[in-house]
Amino acid sequence: LFEGKVKTSDSIDSLIDPSVEFVELQDPVAKIQKILQDGKSPLVTDGGPQGKLITILTKIDLITYLGARS
Fold first, then answer.
1. pTM over cut 0.70
2. What is the helix (H) or strand (E) element at residue 31, kind and residue range?
């Protein structure tokens, strides 16, 4: 903005990070595992019409979960 290369009226599509993927609370663990294996970050939403963000899961979260189940 300061250099005049972008304007506040420009589209936000260039701001969207392709390394994130939205998931919902009812999605299976296997989906989270695949997203993490692909090098992406799963952003968990409540699944409602507005898609309220609940949390961002990490590989450590998955490892901890799987370790506690064994």
1. yes
2. helix 29-37
